[in-house]
Write a structure and sequence with these properties.
Elements (H helix, E strand, L loop, with lengths): L7 H4 L18 H11 L4 H18 L8 H25 L7 H31 L5 H6 L5 H9 L2 H19 L3 H18 L7 H24 L5 H27 L7 H7 L5 H9 L1 H21 L3 H10 L18 H6 L3 H22 L3 H9 L7 H10 L22 H17 L6 H17 L10 H18 L9 H12 L22 H8 L7
Helix pairs in contact: 3-4, 3-5, 4-8, 5-7, 5-8, 7-8, 7-9, 7-11, 8-9, 9-10, 10-11, 13-14, 14-15, 14-20, 14-22, 15-18, 15-20, 17-18, 17-19, 20-21, 20-24, 21-22
Length: 552
């Protein structure tokens, strides 16, 4: 016996009754972040910050070493430190992405270096005091415990491994000057930093710090053993190795505590933060799932496409996936006006003027940015919300406006039906734009064969490229080809035809459903509406897929 459930109750439960997540409460580091953002806009901020950092570093080093020539020795220290920091600045300016070369990022880089130098200086004071209290502990063991590798660990997490390598090299030279240490200490510090960088380069979990700390401790022990055997001096080897292991543990603890203090004020978003935001228990994602389930499914599919494409070209795959999860959160304000959430959305827009429909559809970008800022999402995710549409044309409502407009009155302007932008500024935002358009376009195909999927994806990417949406990002033509191939591979696997299983039970089940008054469900790919209110006919679907944007 089949049980029929009425859908009248479901229809009377609008998604608007769901309570949106509350905005983020007071954040202690928010005032510091706002101050950094304001200062970044001032032209004098970066030169002043560099000058202060240079002077403070020279003062810190000069107070730790002997100065046989007095002021002339200070001048020599100034020239050496200026050279090291100048080389590091040029490295960042010419060989790092634009995001790293921003003023706030350079200030963060200097803050990390200065923090490690201050901790090293304090460690020297503590080591001298302990050596007087416990003279049987050699000073070399206490120096081995100084957490110089902390700089490489923080730079790897907050920036990338390449910048961490250059920063660690500069930092080990500066700490070597501070300690007036021989070559073996420089190699000890640099090897520990390199090991920490290599361990963290591919890790994306909170235990990575302690894994890196253990690896640094073992690397220190290895280096100390090698130098002890080389110099034929093993009298303090055991105590030195203990100091090297303590070094690794201190790096793990300090990195765990300092990361939030450095990440939030300077607007950096680490892999750890992205992993936390990708959790489906996040209030904003839960609200998206319950309020606009179709949009959430679309976002999940876009995330899969974007992540695969980003991995193929060496972009930030995790950022692409998490950005896809949140790129359409603005649709939760009016979910019933978007076809993926409500099959009657087309009828709703038929009753509205094209200009009003355009305003409703385009408003999800502005409202998404507002929700993201209220909820406290990182800037890198907030920026991807408007950039995933760029300045593309809402073609369906534009064509409809041209058809219904009175030629004697004012003509319909194309710029009125374009998103406000900006265009994608990063490779990740561009990948998100391509994945979003490709997923929506292939979903309207009535017969999604591999050949038609490939043709649709190529039309979408070519249309976006010709429209100039990729002019301000760093994607190359070769990378676009790789992205298209990955899109086709995944979409073909998603929309492949299943085998029809013969059997009387299936036919009898269909007959019973017909007798009960139920309609046979249509395949998802053959629904009456989709993005852009697709009509019947494969040729028209493919043609519409090649347009800059559909509409719904």
């Amino acid at each position: 016996m089949d049980t029929l459930f009425s859908d009248k109750t479901l229809r009377r439960e609008p998604a608007d009754r769901l309570v949106p997540p509350p905005p983020k409460g007071w954040r202690p580091l928010a005032p510091v972040r706002r101050a950094v953002l304001r200062l970044e806009q001032q032209r004098w901020f970066l030169p002043a910050a560099i000058t202060l950092f240079l002077l403070f570093t020279v003062e810190l080093l000069s107070s730790s070493v002997s100065l046989p020539l007095g002021a002339w020795s200070v001048l020599g220290m100034f020239l050496l430190v200026a050279f090291l920091l100048g080389v590091l600045y040029e490295y960042v300016h010419f060989l790092q992405p634009r995001e790293v070369a921003r003023a706030r990022s350079l200030v963060l880089l200097g803050t990390i270096l200065l923090t490690v130098l201050i901790l090293t200086r304090l460690g020297l004071v503590v080591a001298a005091s302990l050596h007087q209290t416990f003279p049987h502990i050699p000073l070399s063991a206490m120096r081995a415990a100084l957490p110089v590798a902390l700089g490489g660990v923080l730079l790897t997490i907050l920036f990338n491994a390449r910048l961490a390598f250059a920063g660690s090299l500069s930092l080990t030279i500066l700490t070597g000057l501070m300690l007036e240490a021989p070559l073996d200490y420089f190699i000890l510090s640099f090897v520990g930093s390199l090991v920490g960088i290599f361990v963290l380069a591919r890790r994306q979990d909170r235990t990575a710090f302690f894994r890196a700390g253990c690896a640094i401790g073992l690397a220190n022990a290895y280096t100390l053993l090698a130098f002890a055997l080389l110099e034929a001096n093993t009298s303090s080897l055991a105590v030195d190795i203990v100091g090297g292991i303590v070094n690794g543990l201190m790096v793990a603890v300090l990195a765990t505590g300092l990361l939030p203090l450095l990440e939030q004020p300077f607007g950096r978003t680490t892999a750890f933060t992205l992993l936390e935001l990708s959790n489906l228990n996040e209030p904003l994602l839960k609200y998206l799932i319950l309020t606009a389930p179709g949009t959430y499914h679309h976002s999940s599919m876009v995330g899969t496409l974007a992540e695969a494409a980003a991995e193929a070209i060496g972009a930030n795959a995790l950022l692409c996936r998490v950005g896809a999860y949140y790129h359409d959160i603005g649709k939760t304000r009016h979910p019933s006006y978007f076809i993926e959430n409500n099959t009657e959305a087309a009828d709703r827009h038929e009753k509205l003027a094209p200009s009003l429909s355009r305003a409703v559809v385009m408003s999800h970008v502005k409202e998404g940015v507002e929700m993201a800022r209220e909820y406290g999402l990182p800037d890198v995710l907030v920026d991807m919300i408007p950039q995933h549409h760029g300045t593309r044309l809402v073609s369906f409502f534009y064509q409809r406006a041209k058809e219904t407009a009175d030629p004697e009155l004012q003509a319909v302007k194309e710029e009125d039906y374009r998103y406000l932008g900006p265009k994608p500024q990063t490779r990740e935002a561009a990948i998100l734009m391509l994945a979003d358009a490709a997923e929506a376009a292939t979903r309207i195909l009535t017969d999604p064969t591999p050949a038609r999927i490939r043709g649709t994806v190529q039309k979408i990417i070519n249309g976006i490229f010709v429209d100039g949406q990729l002019d301000e990002c760093d994607l190359a033509l070769r990378e676009l080809h790789i992205i298209a191939n990955n899109f086709v591979r995944i979409l073909t696997g998603i929309f492949h035809h299943r085998i029809e299983y013969p059997g009387a039970e299936l036919e009898q089940g269909a007959k019973k459903r017909s007798e009960n008054g139920d309609q046979s469900p249509k395949p998802a790919a053959e629904g009456p509406h989709r993005d852009g209110m697709a009509k019947k006919g494969g040729a028209k679907d493919a043609q519409r897929a090649g347009m800059p944007d559909g509409g719904l």
